[in-house]
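Quarterly update from the structural biology core.
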Amino acid sequence: MNGIMKRIDLSMKMLFVTILLIISMISAYALPKEIGKRPLIAKYKKWLGEEVIYIITSKEKEVFLKLKTDREKDVFIEAFWKQRDPNPLTESNEFKDEHYRRIEYANLHFGRMSPLPGWKTDRGRIYITIGPPVSTQMYENLSSIYPTIVWNYHGMSKHRLPDVFNIVFFKKRGTGDYRLYSPSMDGPQSLVAYTSSGQIDSDSAFKEIQSMAPALASVSLSLLPGELVYSEMPSIASDILLFEINSTPQKTVKDEYAKKFLLYKDIVELEYSVNYIENDSLVHVFKDKSGIYFVHYLVELSKFSVNLYEDKYFTRLLLNGNISDHKGNTIFQYERSIPVEFDQEKFNNIKTKKYSFHDVFPLVEGSYKFNLLVKNEASKEFTFIEKDITISQDSSLSMSDLILAYSEEKDLSKKKKAFKVQDFQLYPSPRNNFVPKDDLVLLFQIFGLSEETKEKGSFEIAIYKGEEKFRSRQKALREYDSLDFFMEKFSLVDFPPAYYKMRVALLDQDKNEVLFKENWFSISPVITLPRPWINSIVHNSSDDPGYFYVLGSQLFKKKEYKRARILLERAYRRYPASLQFALGFSNVLFILKEYKPIVEILAPFLIKKNFEVLELIARSHHSLGKFNKAVSLYKEYISHYGANYFVLALLGDCYYQIGNKKEALKAWEKSLELNPNQAEIKKLVNSIKQ
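Predicted structure, tokenized:
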């Protein structure tokens, strides 16, 4: 039964991705309809419907069709290419030149044997969209295999695609033009004219290809080299890749300029319509006394724009944060919508200062890439940061990075804020710049300390000016009030303006250096530095069950299900009335095949008519062998949410298990009507009919 459910789940995902792919292709490449009263003249029709059809965004297309005069259209086309110019300082636009070269190549090489112009063919579309392949393999003279071409791509991560992949084209039934191949929609059987066994199902076709062209056989199942797949279950990741390729040119363009152009084309210069804001940022990981690691970060904008309405200055910051592992898998993602509003007096106090946004979130151990997109809704300005984060997974001796702050203050509240460590709120600068009147605050943490080191170890904290040791102090670990973190202050009154290096070394009982960390800072000759105004998000204290849920969900994404279970259960036990916590805990229990508790956990929500839980409760009863109860719940799910081929397939399995083959056949046939690509269900239907 688990095998059936796996295949059904895979088929459902395949159908979803395929539908997205088809919709994407239709919407992206359909010839535009003229929105305005005047139809497009020939040159604009060609530009929109042929020359840029694969790279223009929907917003750009919409704006272009609303423009009234030829002059507006010409200026917009100039802006369109300017947005894509990789080097605005040069006279030529390398992107534009390469794009038209690709169109010319496609028309010359891919339209010869086709009724379509080269740019309209599948090969032309892929070539224009992502460029030429690194290499090509031709399979055109194999007796049992239809003509097939494989394009190999390398180094594509810069386009936000897998770094290495293949694209396959084949002649359907051996005739016509080369068309794009999908492992899940076409399958190995579409590449084979006949097989030695006489059958042309997916498995037989795969074996035939393997005997004739082994390299092509693996590509017929997956476009991603190294992906583990089976002949009866072609790769869904390949369809996702094809979907991503279609939208690749649009992802690299910030098309907000198009909307701005439409709004302000008569009153502002084109160059003012879009702006990237420079930023300084700082990201640091602190281990909380609760044992949770929190990522503290700040983003300091070089420019901050607001709107004015009825004596109020306001904007809204839209944040999108993403934590991914070294394979690019998303482990944690969040969005924040931060309203900013102040009156005239506050505006006068801060208008000459930079804006600094501070935030914090929990994260489990591992090595990650942290990406943060910050957008200013008022001005459509944006900025972006990307940082590597590593949280050690073992208890070996290690030291955190050194945080240098220009100020600190006591904060006895239990609330969680960025750069707040226990009862101390720090104010660091991402540039580590200070003036002589500042007190430099140093803070760091040590992990994995032995009892002997705690008792007999010490720190040597030294500040270097050039190669010369300018200041130093030694202090035993036992002199600190707490070993959760270590904080020191240095008055900078007699520090001359210069660059300095802070060095902290841990010494053992014999004064031997065990480990160290360094950080640079500067002393400015000016009397004072303009510090930013800070907008810091305040979160609940670190014992809030929401943190356990977030951490458990991160472990779930990492497929560390047993550890995820502990934290998700802790969140649920603390607040069992939360549907989010209950579903999180139930999902990990289902993965771990602990079905019985799921029914008890989710039952109260079903009583309250919260039908989000129906499918999971039904599948739990199903897995426990309570088929009659599962049938009732699946039918209730369908009555609320409509026909769903995945649920219908499961419903059919329940009927089959209780011996009601008639109802099983009905459910499976209905499921196949919604999604015919369910080989396992087809076999079961045929077996019943026979």
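The longest strand covers residues 312-324.
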